C-alpha cells in the first residue's frame, strides 16, 4: 500500500485523540466477552488434560491490566462529573469537526475506517474519545495563561512546523499488473469516472473507498517515481500507468499548494493552539490530581488489603 498521507506534528496530535482509548476499549471488550460468554468454572483453554479456567483468566486480566483500566474509567468519570458541575458541554457539531479532522489526517474516510478496524474500534469509540478530549480541553484551558512573549518564543523555536512546504493533492488507482493498468487507463480516456474506477479496481483499500484520494503530501513522503510524476503534473491531469514496488499507479492530481514561509502574524492562531495543547498535556496530571481532591473516590483495586 502506498503511504502518501503526510506525517507532521499537527496530524500526529490529531491521531492521539483516536488512539488514546484503544487499550481501554480492547481490554474492557475482552473482559466483558469472557465474563459473559462462560461460567466462572468453565475452562477457556486446555493443554492435554490440564485446563485454564475462566476464573483464572479473569484474575490474570485484572492482575495485569485492571488497575490501569479502572484508573482510566475513574479519570473519565471525574472529568464527566466536573463538566456537569461547571456546565461544560460538547455539541454534536464540535464532535463532528473533531471527527472530520481525524479523517482528514488519515487521508480520507476510507483510511480512517481501516485504522479503526485494525485497532478493534468503532466509530462511536472514536467519537467518545473526541468528546472526552474536548471536554478535558475546555476544563483545563481556563487555568492556562500564555503571554505574548511565550507565543513569540514558541514560534521562533518551531517556525518550520508552521511553514508550508510545496504539496500536491492526488488520487490514485493501484493495480497489480500492467494489463489491468492499461484497461483502467483506457476507461478513463473514454470518460469513465476516476473515483468510481478507483473503488472498483484499486488494491489500495485504504484510499479506494474514498475515490483513491491520498490527500496532500510533500516531497519525500511517497515513492520516488510516484512523487516525480505527481509534482510534474497539472491539476486535473491524469498520468499514464507508473510502475513502483507496490504495483502500477494511475495518478490524478487534484490540488497544489506552493511553498510558503511562515510569519508570526499569520501563524499566531496556530501557534496559540499548539502551545495551549502542549501546556494542557504538561499540566494534565497535576490538574487531574487537584480535581480528585474534590471527589470522594474509592478504588478497591489499589486499597490496602
What does this structure look like?
The chain has 305 residues and is α+β, with helices and mostly antiparallel strands. The protein has helices at residues 9-19, 22-37, 54-85, 92-105, 109-118, 123-140, 148-157, 159-162, 178-189, 194-201, 205-208, 224-232, 264-292; strands at 43-47, 50-53, 167-175, 213-218, 242-244, 247-257. The protein has 2 domains: 9-145, Triger factor/SurA peptide-binding fold (Orthogonal Bundle), CATH 1.10.4030; 163-257, Chitinase A, domain 3 (Roll). Strand 5 (242-244) and strand 6 form a beta hairpin. The strands form 2 sheets. The protein has a 4-stranded antiparallel β-sheet. Strands 1-2 form a two-stranded antiparallel ribbon. It contains 13 helices and 6 strands. 58% of the residues lie in helices and 12% in strands. Helix 1 crosses helix 4, helix 3 (54-85) packs across helix 6 and helix 4 packs across helix 5. Residues 1-26 have low confidence and may be disordered.
Key features of this structure:
alpha+beta, Triger factor/SurA peptide-binding fold, Chitinase A, domain 3, 2 domains, two-stranded antiparallel sheet, 13 helices, disordered N terminus
